[in-house]
Amino acid sequence: MGLINMKMRSNVKSLLLEKCRMK
After folding, report:
1. Residue range 4-15, pLDDT digits in tens
2. Highest taxon of the source (predicted)?
3. Torsion-angle region of 11 (φ positive above 0: left; ψ -120 to 50: alpha; else: beta)
């Protein structure tokens, strides 16, 4: 479960970074 949590967190971080770039 820990690994999955880390993966989801990294995914969210990537999405946030992309959003900031779009702006």
Report:
1. 888 999 999 999
2. Eukaryota
3. alpha
Q: Shortest CA distance to 12 belongs to which of 23, 2, 1, 20?
A: 20
Question: In angstroms, rounded to a whole number, what is the distance separating the alpha carbons of residues 23 and 7?
Answer: 25
pLDDT at 2: 82
The label of the residue with tokens 């995914």 reads 11
Return d(Cα 23, Cα 20) in angstroms, integer.
5
| Structural tokens at position 23 | 């702006």
Rounded Cα gap, residues 17 and 20, in angstroms: 5
